[in-house]
Design goal:
With 154 residues, the chain is α+β, with helices and mostly antiparallel strands. It is 36% helix and 20% strand. Pfam families: L51_S25_CI-B8.
Amino acid sequence: MSQKAKGSAAMFKNLPKSRILKQITRLNNISGSPETAYKFNPKYTKFEVYLIKNSVLGSAIGLRKFWRQRLPTFKFHNENVDFVFKRIVTQTKEDLAKCPTKIVIHDSTGSKNEIDCSNETVDGIFEKVVKATEASPVPSDQIDSIPVPPQYQH
């Protein structure tokens, strides 16, 4: 299996075998659910994620999983927010240990709020982001989803 295929499989687990159903499932995962779809307070304008470019282990794994699993839904529902990804290249284990594992949220006044993501789980980071951005849940009737065509239903 190629590196790209491995990454794709890890990002979208438990997908159906049909290509159309895979695409529908991926799109519906991005649009989220009532538990994962949140809209930031409009005063927040920029969302920076600091990611280590090479393989991530240890204290930064939660942030990497958050980036893959939860960030697409935040981006989908917060189209007026500038999402910036800072990929950090490290050469040694010492450099890796010094790398920031954080999210920086900017508001319209120029203030910044940093969220330390070291040793945090995906859910822990998600809760911190919701709190820091004063996010509110998107009503379920406003969450777009693509219905499964009848010929693909079992």
